[in-house]
Amino acid sequence: MAKFIKANDCHACPYKSYSLTKLDGTDIDNIQNNCLIVTFKRGENICKQGTEVTHALYLAKGSVKLFVEGKNKNLILKLINERKYIGLQSLFGDRIYNYTVAALEDSQICMINADIILKLAQSNVEYLFELTKTLSESTNFVYKKIVDINQKQLRGRLADILLYFSETVFKNPTFDLKLTRKELAEYSSMSMENTVRILNEYKKDGIIGIDGRAFTILQPEILRKISELG
Amino acid sequence: MAKFIKANDCHACPYKSYSLTKLDGTDIDNIQNNCLIVTFKRGENICKQGTEVTHALYLAKGSVKLFVEGKNKNLILKLINERKYIGLQSLFGDRIYNYTVAALEDSQICMINADIILKLAQSNVEYLFELTKTLSESTNFVYKKIVDINQKQLRGRLADILLYFSETVFKNPTFDLKLTRKELAEYSSMSMENTVRILNEYKKDGIIGIDGRAFTILQPEILRKISELG
DNA sequence: TTATAACATTGTTATATATCAATGATATAA
DNA sequence: TTATATCATTGATATATAACAATGTTATAA
Description:
- The structure is a homodimer.
- Chain A is of the alpha+beta class.
- Chain A has two domains: 147 residues, Sandwich (Jelly Rolls), CATH 2.60.120; 78 residues, Arc Repressor Mutant, subunit A, CATH 1.10.10.
- Chain A has eight helices and twelve strands.
- In chain A, strands 1-2-9-4-7 form a five-stranded antiparallel sheet.
- In chain A, helix 5 packs across helix 8 and helix 6 crosses helix 7.
- The radius of gyration of chain A is 19 Å and the shape is elongated.
- Chain A binds a DNA duplex through helix 7.
């Protein structure tokens, strides 16, 4: 696995979580003393489905995919960007990961002893409240996702996802996806071949531009119409 | 809508939440003074997708379905039984329901002013911690569900669901489902016709017994095998 | 008691989508 | 530079599933 270093200045860390503002100095010291900063290369697993939760995972820098490993295919449930906690529901829940998280690019994860974080959360209501809000938002996201996947067919689904990337994630009509076609397929719950096919359909129709993994949304209104039609 | 009464003795309520044990007497009084007990008949909506969260919803008695209303079809994400909170993620999250909850049988809901509950949660870490654990478990459940739906095909899905009802929900090989065939289909994310077809396939093969909405699992091992095959 | 609606069942047909297969393009290592 | 693997593309085929249609069954209300 990857290199790790001990955290040495969480107070001044430019990547620190907003939730830390709810903690006082000694609590942050406590985190710092129980935190390893681990660097993962693209493709490396950060946590593995079926294993026990021993640490809270905070993505300081980089981006990761959270996916469920099925028998034949994987399903990517969400992409997580920097300055976000990963998998709080497993920390507060049954303490077993029911998904795998892997780096999409070189990423830095702060691994904080799970018991320490739980104890902290139980002694600081403002901090716990922040974590709970985060967890709630993440749950709401997955609720929306499960529906997208089950209510629309391929073209609508892919249209939605392209709009989501451009408007919500990158906030730019042009964006550089860190996903292979296969990963994009796993995110859309469709076959890789159909993903490619439909992307190129959209390209041929002038709805999007594609250059490798860089996409440009040329006609968002058309995508929105496709999304609405299902 | 349904009849409601004011809560008058939360302390001694036989349906009270475990999380209330974390609150002291005056806090419970506070809940009691801001709680309406509303009775819903089967089919009535308890909260509606797209509307604002004004109350925390606690299912004291009965059972409900939580589902997302799509364009053509609904998707039931989970069934909730008595003595459970409903939709904590909306309370702590963006305060908009992105699903509808409806009663499956006559049910009693405690509706507690949202701001009161949030204030209470923010002043009592043990209570908040219980709610967060509940929320986490519920999130984990939906994670599993999204995968079940997307990784298996009809027969495996339905096998899983029958096993889930008998082993996890009712803890009995015989159980009386409160779902119509259409609702069971919406829970399995498949068409009503195929639901009926496959159920009757299983019946003809002696794997299950069916009498209206009462089911008996006769050969769980076969169901498990079907589930594994996909 | 009959009429009406909701629910359940079964067969048929259409189609969206996965799967299979082959080939091309690009990056990586030897 | 060539070899090798990963990734992307395109076409052809098979099939799981939804959608349609018709009818039977049960509950509910008038």
